[in-house]
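Thread: iron/sulfur cluster complex, take 2
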Amino acid sequence: MYLSEETREKIKALRDKYPTKKAALLPTLHLVFDECGYLGTDQLDEAADVLGISRLEINEAASFYTLFPKHKVGKYLLQVCDNISCSLRGADNLVGYIKEKLGIEVGDTTPDGLFTLWTVECLGSCGTGPVMQVGDRYYEKLTREKVDKLLDKWKNGGEDGSSKEPKQSDR
Amino acid sequence: MSEKILFKYIDYPDQDRIETYIKNGGYTALRKVLKEYQPEEVVDIVKASWLRGRGGAGFPTGVKWSFLPKDGNKPIYLIVNGDESEPGTFKDRQLMEYDPHQLIEGAIISAYAIRCHTAFIYIRGEFVRPAEQVGKALQEAKDKGFLGKDILGSGYDLDIHIVRGGGAYICGEETSLMESIEGKRPLSRQKPPFPAIEGLWGCPTIINNVETLSNIPHILNNGAEWYKSFGTEKSPGTKIFCLSGHINRPGNYELPMGVNLKELIYEYGGGIIDDRPLKAVIPGGSSTPILRADEIDVNMDFESLAAAGTMLGSAGVIVMHDGTCMVSALQKLTKFYEHESCGKCSPCREGTNWMNKILKRMLKGEGRPEDVDLLYDIAKNILGRTVCPLGDAAAMPVIGFLDKFRDEFENICNGGKPKGTIHFPFN
Ligand SMILES: Cc1cc2nc3c(=O)[nH]c(=O)nc-3n(C[C@H](O)[C@H](O)[C@H](O)COP(=O)(O)O)c2cc1C
Ligand code: SF4
Ligand code: FES
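Output below.
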């Protein structure tokens, strides 16, 4: 078993929530991701069985969505936006800086398994760019100093990337 | 500052909580509607207000609603589009995060108007906190009897579900969005049939943007004539303009439709960073054709921008100063569309890939003189030949950049150095 009893129960609860069973597919992907941190074929197959849809269906849909890593990633998945507005504000330099600091390329994970670095498309936070998403949170108006502080905090076992601090209005 | 409608209470402490929202006049429109109006009357008021969709296309909302079949026996669905992924756009996030009840009240009234009993709010997967905020607000609304069975004793029932996306721009396109909710691999559908006739699970479906529906309570409270007193005759109301890029005060600005772009950039946005000369502006999100600095004396409404050869789109205003290399900027956008193409039709799937390849070749200094026309030709051949409008969205910026900055592309293809100081690494 790749999924906990709790997640399996949650998936079962979704089965009757929507007009069709299949409509529970995307919410199920979120549940699997929340528990495992990525969507592997084993996890997906099991989720499909619990939901009562075909394994092919779930894999076919899951492979489309880029939000979910398909392999195990570092404890902190740094997703830096490198689309146009953030780039005009120096996102690319920042990506270079993070690469140098962590000693990895985009797409890679540090040997200690702590950090994975990704570049992603527009996060819908262009007014406060450069921005990166780590776990549930956005880190906005990034500078090298801010990146230094965050990486240090996480290296020293600080709060994890999914903590939910209230954000300030960016206006 | 002019009068605000949607952002009036956005900075008000605890506006996300139902008590505060009610104290600030919230849910009075819903009470009034359920007591005084038949569904058709609500549709008529929204039609009369000439509210136009804020998701990009600007289609009149009331007119869209009236396309629903009058006598069908299938259920009718409402989908609130909170996928917000067009580069340069970041308004719906704030509306959902800081004033979720305004959206929910708008959604309930709209659902009542179209006789819908099950609605969905589709929120892009990255927006974790906005989804939590909307979720919390839905529960509060339910607890107060604004949602669920027999709303406020009117006999009207409505459930609203949140669906969180999985990180795919194409899911903002209405037909792909429906495939996504249905649990399929979200490839866009061929239209017609239009969603109002055959949408979610083959049933009549209305899809509206977050900002569009957030206007609804205000229109029902104050009337169509009041709403039309804002903005221009054909584009009434206010609009949230998202300013980003090389601008001193980036952020969201709610202003009447038709505000002048120059004023928006220099008065509201505080001008260009480091007081540098302006080079170009993308006026309505990444897919709208670019304007040169000498073309920004234009009003920001659907008609004026169309007359200027571009579009209001999602009103994501992306500002670039003289240091920006246009080839590099266009490659960023093209890479995005290549990445986000759903792959269903070849002009879009192959065309975006070819265009990105050519642009990368140019940036590497390997461009050939004929590449400029080749790029133009590919873009022109995508236009109007695809299943969904993403193909056009990818082609329009290419055509726009080439029309306005052809010399930079030619220069690079003839062995010249790229212009400007800002060059992005490309992949
Ligand atoms: C590629 C593509 C992406 C889109 N993304 C969004 C989006 O993120 N949010 C949105 O509201 N509309 C988006 N739209 C427009 C929707 O298809 C639809 O027209 C809109 O949600 C209708 O709402 P409105 O009439 O209130 O504007 C997109 C369209 C296309 C072609
Ligand atoms: S235009 Fe692009 S995104 Fe739209 S259906 Fe065709 S391949 Fe898919
Ligand atoms: S371009 Fe980075 S958040 Fe939009």
